[in-house]
Specification:
alpha/beta, 2-enoyl-CoA Hydratase, Chain A, domain 1, Lyase 2-enoyl-coa Hydratase, Chain  A, domain 2, 2 domains, four-stranded mixed β-sheet, about 50% helix, about 10% strand, ClpP/crotonase-like_dom_sf, Enoyl-CoA_hyd/isom_CS, lyase
Length: about 250
C-alpha cells in the first residue's frame, strides 16, 4: 500500500485499486501466499479517509461503508493464506483490513485499535465480527467500547497478532518477519493449504458437527490430488516432496 499523502487511508480510488489487485491475485495460480504491507514508513493503514467521508451525504456513506465491508470480505476469501505486516499505525479500517487477513505480524512499536467510537462511529468493515474471533468477546467489547490503541507487544499477548518483533532502522521489521512466515508456508502442498483454510473459515461459521462435515468435504477434494500422491511417495522414499499444486 502506497498512499503517503493520506497515510494509506481508505478512499474511493484506493479501495478500487485494492479490489483490482485482489481480482488479479484470486486467479493467479502461481500465487502461494499474499503479504499486505505498507510502503509508507510508520503506518500500515490509518483507516477510512475521513476527509473524503466528510464530503459524502448519509446515503453515500452507507454505500461506501458497504463497499469497504465487501473489500474486507474479498481479502478474507482469497484462497491462499494472507499475512498482514503491521509496521506502524493500523487504526479503524486499517486494523479491520489486518483482521481480514489470516495471519498478522506486528512491530512492537506498531499501534493498533478500532478507534471508531472516538469519532462517533462504530467499526463497519467487519471489525465487530472478526475481532472477537481473535481476542474473545469480552476483550473485543472493551477495545471497541473504549477505542483503545495497543502496541505490538500488547497485541501479541491478547492474540490479536501471531508474532511481534522489535522495529528495525528501516522500519520494516514486521514485513521481514512476515516473509519468514510466508517462506514456511511456501514448501507445503498448495491445494492442501487452500483446503485447510477453507475448512477453518467455513467451519467457524457453523456448529462443530457441521464443521466436521465441511472438513470431510475438503479432505475428500484433496484425496485425488497429485500432491497427496507425491507426499506419500516422498515419505516412502525418504526425500523432500515436490508439490505442484494439483
Amino acid at each position: 500500500m502506497n498512499r503517503p499523502h493520506a497515510r494509506n487511508s481508505l478512499g474511493k480510488v484506493f479501495v478500487n485499486e485494492l479490489f483490482s489487485a485482489l481480482e488479479q491475485l484470486r486467479f493467479d495460480e502461481k500465487v502461494r501466499v499474499v503479504v499486505f504491507k505498507s510502503e509508507v514508513k510508520g503506518v500500515f493503514c490509518a483507516g477510512a479517509d475521513l476527509k473524503e467521508r466528510a464530503k459524502m451525504d448519509d446515503a453515500e456513506v452507507g454505500h461506501f461503508v458497504k463497499r469497504l465491508r465487501n473489500l474486507m470480505d474479498e481479502i478474507a476469501a482469497l484462497p491462499v493464506p494472507t499475512i498482514a505486516a503491521i509496521d506502524g499505525y493500523a487504526l479503524g479500517g486499517g486494523l479491520e483490513l489486518a483482521l481480514a487477513c489470516d495471519l498478522r505480524v506486528a512491530a512492537s512499536s506498531a499501534k493498533m485499535g478500532l478507534i471508531e467510537t472516538t469519532r462517533g462511529l462504530l467499526p463497519g468493515a467487519g471489525g465487530t465480527q472478526r475481532l472477537p474471533r481473535c481476542v474473545g468477546i469480552g476483550l473485543a467489547k472493551e477495545l471497541i467500547f473504549t477505542g483503545r490503541q495497543v502496541d505490538g507487544q500488547q497485541a501479541a499477548s491478547m492474540g490479536l497478532v501471531n508474532h511481534t518483533v522489535p522495529q528495525n532502522s528501516e522500519g520494516d521489521a514486521a514485513y521481514q518477519r512476515a516473509l519468514i512466515l510466508a517462506k514456511e508456508i511456501l514448501p507445503q502442498a498448495p491445494f492442501a493449504v487452500k483446503m485447510g483454510k477453507l475448512a477453518i473459515n467455513r467451519g467457524m461459521e457453523v456448529d462443530i458437527a457441521s464443521g466436521m462435515a465441511i472438513e470431510g468435504m475438503c479432505y475428500a477434494q484433496n484425496i485425488p490430488t497429485r500432491d497427496r500422491q507425491e507426499g506419500m511417495a516422498a515419505f516412502k522414499e525418504k526425500r523432500p516432496p515436490q508439490f505442484i499444486g494439483k
